[in-house]
Design a protein that fits this description.
The complex is a heterodimer of chains A (298) and B (448). By secondary structure, chain A is mostly helical. Helix content of chain A is 76%, strand content 1%. The chains are: A mainly alpha (298), B alpha/beta (448).
């Protein structure tokens, strides 16, 4: 063996040795549960009833996707994700653009837009639940003051999901803004300047310079926002428990309910696999898009 | 003071891995010692040896519950030197049950004693997790057994009448009313409504326009089946017959749901849509709702904070008063060694002494599980000052069992969804309940 090869082997071994502790933890706390979830999703099992797990294979998923309640939960989750992701990313970008100015007191504005991020979701949800209350909530006080009829936000099927979405947008727009702000601040000033010299309007600068150059940021922000949205659970638990009549029941809350309230663990495993599959497909698609675009840019 | 949803969120196993991480088998218990034990040694009575016994318990109401429980256990241990009893806080009701089931699934040794929902009895029976109470009941003696409130004992029995649990932290709904508002509306504050019609009439007089004050508010989010059950019983029928049969489509049950819907739709004395459990006591305290139906567990909170005289009353229905029960029972788990199970029975005997029951009721708002608890000096002094607590006891004569079937969690949710579908105008009471009956029948058919 040449010394060169030996050196390379040593480097590789060292690398493996250094990674080993993390690998063990990854295998133990991510790999093993993942494997167990995949296998268990093929078995019918309910902790509330007699009997050992029974192998049913993909029939479990057929049952799942022919259950109107689950289909409603999936529809809710998609609608919720569409609303939350669209609005929070748009707002994040707008805030970032506004806050990227060099003005006095900008720190104060940045802080106040970012601060919902640092609140625990459970506290935020509790506060918003009081604001939404139809008897003494702040929002209905305003509506009454303006002469309107008070709305039962969390208690009306059509309003419950949008009400949850509003809280979620408020909570995460500031967080996503940080990524855009960082992106904007690292934009090469010369490109923008060149555009200005060529007489580009503000809209043209945004459309042809800023947005394309922030594509990487947008794809990253989109990935986190969608992932977070599919994992929404705290605010559902605190504010509506999925009601009225499942109008605001989202996938992860439904998994929690199925596993711990109904003790239907087999079905909960299958639902978890669906959740993982959606997130995996989305993330992979996103990185494919991200890769292709960056080649185009070259 | 929510019965089911203590707002502490403890997702021990979050995100995608929920089921997997929680389903992982528990660590194996200590392997049996291989070394042979000398017969002389084994036969020797273990002088000074203690039996360790654990009780898993959930917390579902406000207040320093853990401190109180630890206090009872310290006193028990002081009086019983041969036993070392430990109370282990295990989260919510659902988490406590999940912990025990995970242990059993992995072949581990469960605690000898646990506080779990009274309605979990069928889940525990179906998974062969609990021990019958026969032995423990005979140690208590007939007089003590008969002293437990029959309404609470109803959920301790299987369909043949065998007892599997002892009532511990039990509550019921009760009607709270604002006496000042009654006076203002020209109603007699000492005569709360006795029939459903009288309730609606009073609510009409108490209602102020534009949501300024509602006549009555009955929460319907979370687990709405619970309060609905009381309305159904007051209309003439409980919502289930046995562990395999629900009765959602009985006329009385449909009437009860219709009546509830009409409170907001026709009489306009109640807010439209779903009413939040958590903020209903606040609405009552703020004078925004003149009458509410809520758990007895909220009584001390409401009495402490109200700036007006508060009355409590039986929940009236078209066919008389009606109320369901709720809360947790003490169970002995089968998988524990016999010595621990025996010790567990002694802990149960201690926790259900009239004095302890009275103290527990006063501190928490749970309704005392034994009749004689009301004869203790402690309780007499307390109810003399707060007669509202006696109403919660006297109401028990109209109480029936909480809906308890196989796969109880799912059946309760099916009924709750139907209630919400009707209250939000998505379906008529009859259609919603018929659909719910079909779903429940399908689910329960495998147990017949």
């Amino acid at each position: 063996m040449s010394t060169h090869l030996r050196a390379r082997l040593n480097t590789t071994l060292l690398g493996v040795a250094l990674l080993l502790p993390s690998l063990v933890f990854l295998a133990l706390f991510t790999g093993w549960p993942l494997l167990k979830t995949l296998v268990s999703s093929l078995y019918k099992q309910n902790l509330a009833t007699r009997g050992e797990p029974r192998f049913v294979g993909l029939q479990q998923f057929v049952d799942l996707f022919t259950d109107p309640a689950f289909l409603q939960v999936m529809a809710n989750t998609l609608v919720f994700t569409a609303i939350v992701v669209t609005f929070s990313i748009t707002l994040a970008f707008l805030f970032a653009t506004l806050l990227n100015q060099k003005l006095r007191g900008m720190g104060l504005f940045r802080t106040s837009i970012f601060y919902p991020t640092i609140l625990p979701m459970v506290s935020a949800a509790t506060v918003w639940m009081l604001m939404y209350d139809n008897d003494f909530g702040l929002i209905n006080d305003v509506i009454r003051f303006l002469g309107g009829k008070p709305l039962n936000f969390l208690g009306t099927p059509e309003l419950a999901l949008p009400a949850l979405a509003a809280l979620t947008i408020w909570k995460q727009a500031g967080y996503l803004m940080v990524f855009y702000l960082a992106g904007l601040q690292s934009l090469p000033a010369d490109v923008v300047e060149a555009g200005k010299l060529d007489g580009a309007s503000a809209w043209q600068t945004l459309r042809y310079i800023t947005l394309p150059m922030l594509r990487g940021t947008t794809i990253f922000v989109l990935t986190i926002a969608v992932t977070a949205s599919f994992q929404t659970v705290d605010q559902v638990y605190v504010m509506t428990q999925g009601g009225p009549n499942n109008a605001s029941n989202l996938l992860l809350y439904n998994i929690y309910e199925t596993a711990f309230r109904f003790q239907n663990t087999g079905l909960a495993y299958a639902m978890t696999v669906v959740l993982l599959a959606i997130l995996l497909i989305f993330t992979v698609l996103n990185s494919v898009v991200a890769d292709r675009k960056s080649y185009d840019a070259d | 003071m929510n019965k089911f949803f203590n707002k502490r969120i403890l997702f021990a196993c979050t995100a995608g891995m929920i089921a997997a991480a929680c389903g992982a088998p528990a660590a194996p218990t200590a392997a049996p010692t291989a070394a042979p034990v000398k017969p002389t040694e084994a036969a020797k009575p273990a002088a000074g040896a203690q039996t360790n016994v654990e009780m898993y318990y959930p917390i579902a109401v406000g207040g320093p519950i853990a401190q109180m429980i630890d206090g009872y256990f310290a006193k028990f241990n002081a009086a019983n030197p041969d036993v070392k009893a430990t109370a282990v806080f295990a989260g919510s009701y659902q988490e406590t049950l999940a912990k025990i089931q995970t242990t059993l699934q992995g072949g581990g040794k469960p605690p000898a004693l646990a506080v779990l929902l009274s309605t979990d009895i069928w889940t525990l029976l179906d998974t062969n997790a609990i021990e019958p109470m026969d032995a423990c009941l005979s140690k208590m003696g007939d007089a003590v057994v008969k002293d437990f409130q029959p309404a609470f004992m109803a959920n301790s029995k299987d369909d043949t009448g065998k007892v599997w649990a002892i009532p511990f932290q039990r509550s019921t709904p009760v009607l709270y009313y604002n006496k000042a508002a009654f006076k203002e509306a020209g109603l007699d504050p000492e005569k709360p409504p006795q029939t459903w019609d009288a309730l609606v009439d009073a609510a009409k007089k108490l209602t102020k326009p534009n949501g300024e004050r509602w006549g009555i508010q009955i929460p319907s989010d979370g687990t709405p089946y619970w309060l609905f059950q009381s309305l159904a019983i007051g209309a003439g029928s409980n919502v289930f017959d046995s562990s395999t049969k629900v009765t959602f489509t009985k006329d009385a049950v449909v009437t009860a749901l219709d009546n509830w819907v009409k409170l907001s739709k026709d009489a306009k004395v109640s807010p439209e849509g779903i009413v939040a459990w958590g903020t209903t006591p606040d609405a009552f305290l703020a004078g925004k709702a003149a009458m509410i139906v809520h758990t007895t567990g909220s009584l001390s909170n409401i009495l402490n904070k109200a700036t007006f005289d508060v009355g409590t009353a039986f929940i009236p229905g078209p066919k008389g008063f009606g109320v369901g029960t709720g809360g947790g029972n003490l169970y002995i788990l089968k998988g524990a060694p016999q010595a621990e199970k025996d010790a567990a029975c002694r802990v149960i005997q201690y926790l259900t002494q009239p004095e302890v029951v009275a103290q527990w009721s006063i501190d928490t708002g749970y309704v005392a599980s034994r009749k004689s608890a009301y004869d203790t000096q402690l309780m007499k002094d307390f109810t003399a000052k707060k007669p509202q607590y006696l109403v919660t006891r006297d109401q028990l004569q109209y109480a029936q069992a909480e809906i308890s079937t196989h796969q109880g969690g799912q059946v309760q949710k099916i009924l709750g969804d139907a209630v919400q579908a009707a209250l939000t105008g998505k379906q008529s009471a009859k259609d919603a309940l018929t659909e719910a009956q079909d779903k429940a029948d399908k689910l329960l058919s495998q147990f017949k």
